[in-house]
Design brief:
With 104 residues, the chain is an all-alpha fold. The chain contains seven helices and no strands. The relative contact order is 0.20.
Length: 104
Amino acid sequence: MNRIYSRQDFMSSKCTYREYYAQFVNNYVIACVRAKYTKEELTRYFKQDKHLNNINMNLIDRFTMNSVQYLAGVNRRLGNGSVYSMSTGCSVFKEACKQIIEGE
C-alpha cells in the first residue's frame, strides 16, 4: 500500500473504490476468505458476477460482525473516526476475494 486514502478522498473521487477498500485488506482478511473459499471457487463466482453479489451474504455478514474491532481500528488510522458499517465489511471481504483471484 503506497498511499493512505481517507474517506473524504474516496468520496471526492481521489481514489478508486478498490484503492480505498484495499487498504483494509491484510493477512487476517485474506485468511478469513481463504477459510471459506478456494481461489477456484472465487474465480467461478467472479466469472458469473464481477461484483461478487453471488457470494453467500450470511457468510460476509458473519465476517463483518466478527471483524468490527479490526475494521473500526482501520477507520481510525485512516482518520475517519471509528466509523463502521456492515457495508464496509462487505466491501473489504469482496476486495479480498478479488485480490485472491488476481493472485494477491
